[in-house]
Amino acid sequence: MNIINTEERRRYFQSFKCEVLTANLKNKELIKEFVSKKANNQLEAYIKNEDRAWAEDSDGETRVYVVKDETDEIALFFSIKCGLLIGENPKYKLNPAEREFVEIVFEAKKNDDQSALEGYYEYGMSEFGDRIDTLFELADKRFNAKKEAKKTGQVENWRVEKCVSAIELRHLCKNEQYQAHSDLGVPFGFGIFWEKIVPKLMEITKSVGCKYIYLFAADKSDEFGDGNIKSLVNYYKNDFKFYECENDDLVIVKPDYDEDCYGLIQEVSMLEHNREAVWHEFSDV
Hints:
The chain is α+β, with helices and mostly antiparallel strands. It is built from ten helices and seven strands. Strands 1, 2, 3, 4, 5, 6 and 7 form a seven-stranded mixed beta sheet that branches. A hairpin with a 5-residue loop joins strand 2 and strand 3 (about 75-85).
């Protein structure tokens, strides 16, 4: 069979099935054949370790999916979990000197030292100019948060400008032993992402509010592409249509174990549009 056009390519990828890892006990045996030996890649160990992928999927911490062909061979696995993006007002982004000044003003407010506050305001006018009111505003926000914590008897909460609903796409990894069709004309991961993973994400977002999808590009290789950016990052940006979250004044809550990973986001509302657009790029029209 020769795949000669875009629709045939899409049908090929749509023929795979996407199955929750723990929904089928046979997957315990099937994942033993999964191979991923790329440099510094620990994803093979993750999917094969019952105390990790299987356990996380069982207890609901992470939902792990295996993508299988008609013979039940696992071609790829990925996982998703609920996440959170933090909205950051650009005017509240501080340099070290501004951050130190806000701390000083906060301490004066905490001690109700009006004389010191007047002096700090005059100093701040000469040192920070128009930024002075913003810095005092930030000190007020922190002071009010402290009062609220004392009033409610709770530990002071982490106050942010806004919280934005999101889903994290994790552990996207192809089985290196899997022999895909030889005439695809597009990367295997590309097709599975747009025809199996994206529809799954869109299905989920019909039931729960979610504005963004995000991921961390865990490229620990020494391969760099255009603009001195890691090759995997370029791949996610060019083929999967993710982009830097700074464009939307957002910050990804990043755990320690994702150190050195590159955070990227994509709007849920754009998934279907992007899906059609990327296939159009490969069309024979």
